[in-house]
Amino acid sequence: MHTPDFWYASPSSSKGSVWASTLASVALLYDSVSRLNSWLTTPMPSPVPVLCVGNLVAGGAGKTPTVIALAELLSAHGIPTHILTRGYGGRLSGPLRVDLAHHTAADVGDEALLLARVATTWIGADRRVTAHRAAEAGAKLVIMDDGFQNPNLRKDLSLVVIDGAVGLGNGRIIPAGPLREDPARALTRADAVLIMGDDMASVADRIISLAPRGLPILTARLEPDETGAKLAAKRVFAFAGIARPEKFFASLRAAGCEVAGTRVFPDHHQFRTSDLAALRTAARDAGAILVTTEKDYVRLSAEEAAAIQVLAVRAAWRDEDSVAALLAPLEAKAGHGRV
Fold first, then answer.
1. Residue 44 and which of 153, 174, 271, 304 are 20 to 30 A apart at CA?
2. Would you give per-residue pLDDT tens digits along the chain (339 residues)?
3. Which domain holds residue 262?
4. Using a CB cutoff of 8 Å and minimum separation of 24, what contacts does 18-24 make?
5. Beta bridge partners of 223
6. Are 202 and 239 contained in the same domain?
7. 200 and 252 together in one domain
């Protein structure tokens, strides 16, 4: 689905206000069901420490690059780390260990393939089962991707990622807004907040006002990797099927690309032959090369991906010492067993 424009519209905007008000009763029902599910569920312990990376809104906060950066950091510290994810968009339900040599995005979802490039990754809706499978396979710590609202597995540390450009949007709950739950209630379960990118939406001030206790606030930014240098000064036609494609287009411009045109598709879109033919024609007519995101690229076959370039981004910590201090107790548990 496309992210509705009114989710991030100003509360004073007439269009945003009308849609948000119309959907307010549905949002109340959504929130009530979520609360009931949480109250009726007893989180089960994991055989190894659990680091949960989640967000408060529906998609587009920078969660996947954060998981990748944390997995790389923990692995560099000598902690055998596995990643648990749902496998959204894939036909296989799991529990299943992702095999890059045999699985495709159609099997396990695009995010699972990206995560599996960095660390052993498991898909499955029941995080309790996948945590046990990971531990049996040698994991000493697991990162739970997008599990902040999942009450089934007990977390040792929960990190909430918030996009500094848009913050919490219009402040309303799905479908009236982008929020998955009431932020004040959510932050009582968080151990830290990561603001991704420049804090243009005054996220830090909002967190300070909402949190009943002082929460550590970390910061990071998304930076192009070596693919950015290869695309610098090139004329490109960009397409993306992600939650907030405008972030990708902005990254291209920041990398020095001349963006001749753009095309937006729904999140996790499965590209058809006709889609790609139209994109190639548009790029040719614009005298540009075709470029997309890593997440979109892994959903293409080798034949479909021919002549399509990729701009990959990575999360860069602004204060890695603060991240290391946050992770230290978790690493101690992972290194010496459960405490």
1. 174
2. 667 888 888 766 655 578 788 888 898 898 898 888 888 888 899 999 999 999 999 978 899 999 999 999 999 999 999 999 999 889 998 899 999 999 999 999 999 999 999 999 999 999 999 999 999 999 999 999 998 999 999 999 999 999 999 999 999 999 999 999 999 999 999 999 999 999 999 999 999 999 867 899 999 999 999 999 999 999 999 999 998 899 999 999 999 999 999 999 998 899 999 999 999 999 999 999 999 999 999 999 999 999 999 999 999 999 999 999 999 999 999 985 443
3. 226-311
4. 19/176, 20/170, 20/172, 20/176, 20/177, 21/176, 22/176, 23/175, 23/176, 24/172, 24/176
5. 314
6. no
7. no
Q: How many domains does the chain have?
A: 2
Nearest one of 244, 254, 242, 50 to 152, comparing CA atoms: 50
Structure tokens at 330: 């978790």
Spatial CA neighbour of 190 closest among 200, 198, 180 = 180
**Whole-prediction pTM value?**
0.92
Find the length of the chain: 339
Structure tokens at 310: 């990729």
The neighbouring-strand residues paired with 262 are: 238
Sheet of 157-163: strand order equals 96-97, 120-123, 81-85, 141-145, 50-55, 157-163, 192-196, 217-224, 313-317
Give domain status of residue 200, yes or no.
Answer: yes
Q: For position 68, which CATH number holds? A: 3.40.50.300
